[in-house]
Write a structure and sequence with these properties.
heterodimer, A: 289 residues, alpha+beta, Rossmann fold, 2 domains, eight-stranded mixed sheet, five-stranded mixed sheet, 16 strands, globular, B: 342 residues, alpha/beta, seven-stranded mixed sheet, 54% helix, 6% strand
Amino acid sequence: MGRTYQTSLRVGPATFRIASEWQQPIAQLSSLYENYPKPKGEFADFTVRLESKSFWRKYFRPTVHISGDFWLPDASPLPLSQGLLAAEMGMNLQMALGWRRHLLLHASTVEKDGKALLMTGLSGSGKSTLSAMLGEKGWRFMGDEFALICPQTGMAHSFPRLISLKNEAIAAMERNTPGDRFGPLLEDTPKGSIRHLVPLWESLEASNQPAKPALLIFPRFGYDKAVREIGKSEIFVRLTQASTNYVALGEAGFKALTSFVDNVSARAIDYQSGDEAEELIDQLWAELV
Amino acid sequence: MKNAMTLVHALCEPGSIRSFDGAGWTNLISMARAESLIGTLAHQLKDLDVPADVRSVLDDEIDAHDMVKQKALWEAECARRALSSYDGKVVLMKGTAYVAAGLTAGMGRNIGDLDIMVARNDLKSVEDMLLEAGWEWVKPDPYDDQYYREHMHELPPLIHRERDSMIDVHHTTLPLTANPTPDAQGMLDDAVMLENGLYIMSPEDMLCHCAAHLMADGDLAGGLRNLWDMHCLLTEFSRQDPGIWEKLDSRAEHHQLGQAVRRSVWHAYDLYATDIPPLWQSGESVTSAFRRRLLARDGYGRETRKLTRQAFYIRSHWLRMPPLMLTKHLWTKWRKGGAGPS
């Protein structure tokens, strides 16, 4: 086995060791995660591995297989040019399959005045873009992939990994954001074009401060502006589907989720543009008190 | 870390972890996860002083494996209910048997599918009852189905349509094509009833099955875990009954599993320092290929020793079937583009 390149990263409460057969993904990670709080010691909760399946595939049209402590048997490999994405996917996979200290909701989160706004929905709903946008407009960005809900306190904890901007959202964010906060543009990924954005330093610095979940939004992009109420049972079922570890946590997961549904206001919103979404969110946020 | 010896030491001499730094712990945890021994490791280190961030991971794993145990027992209960009108013995096997019987081998053990054994003549009625209760075939492939039924020691796997959980219904402990032919009826006759009406194998048979699973079937993937089972069973049973060794010896011969049992006992003694009688301590050598294969894992959790692994993979097929049949089987599978039943 040849040389192994590695780096250790901390995102919110979790630490990762990323080990790779190639230098490039590690170099990209090290530069993009430069301003993140460093792991306290050398111990990592999870190991992510980026490996080749054969000697030839390490050098000739190199393909990266995502593996690690937790892995999926049928995960598709990515070309080496998308090695950064492979590392990010590997970290998400460790969290989704292995993290048990919080209930994981597949949701983006931003914070204001100690209260958290969570946005959840299918891929393409705009939750990631909305969190990135709000993160530049006075909200504290807490995460675009997983909201971590503490089963004991019900508080939302931050998991501010690199923001994964997709397709149209890339140009939209590039207009008002300094270029040195972006990673390389990754084209033709399984999800189209992807470009990673480093959250503002203030978000990273405050990443150990939890926030009380106050509002949950189910955004839907591309429909006429609208706000709808949703019944609690529907919210519950949709969140069981949006949680990667609800089943794995057993009774603790059930208690955390039912208490979340009981205590957090929720609305579905439809919108055609970022400005419309922001207007609706501000309006719902103001009505909270 | 070049091989999994660190993990082996941490399991049987938990004090050995005192010298670990952060990187050492990361290596250990990755290896233990890769070998499906993380729950076991967490239990072994339960009362030790370890760094707080390591403690969090170990506590998570204890919690996760408590759930594994709960789920395994529930699956066994579901099978019991589905088979309540079956009047033969339903014998739990492997992990589920260990947790159902409260054996140390079950502590923190990962348990995937539910494995049960019933009499071969009753397979059809058991199969029908399970299908009736919501289990369905996983592989609707006619070649695989026929292969399982004619040559394997179990039915093709069934999966429950609501709970998504698998059940393997065995009628013996080794493929019918393998050289040793264990006495399946004898195992059923000697099985011990649990409070809920389900059965587990007698201690000797449980050891024979564990050894057969480890040494006479498969390519030693997950071998360290299976060897840990062997270590725990030997330790616990010999404490309860010092006469177990003679019984094990004659029972192993009876099942044509003498070699597999002796080899398993020796490797448990060699790696996990299992307390075994002097008579059992000779035989295998420390340079054994089995030993190299068992330890073929590095600190990143990666598989090492590709050639040894490959050799054991070929051996696993060799053990399972005679050469001509193997050729025919691989030819069919190759044309269909998939791996053989495992």
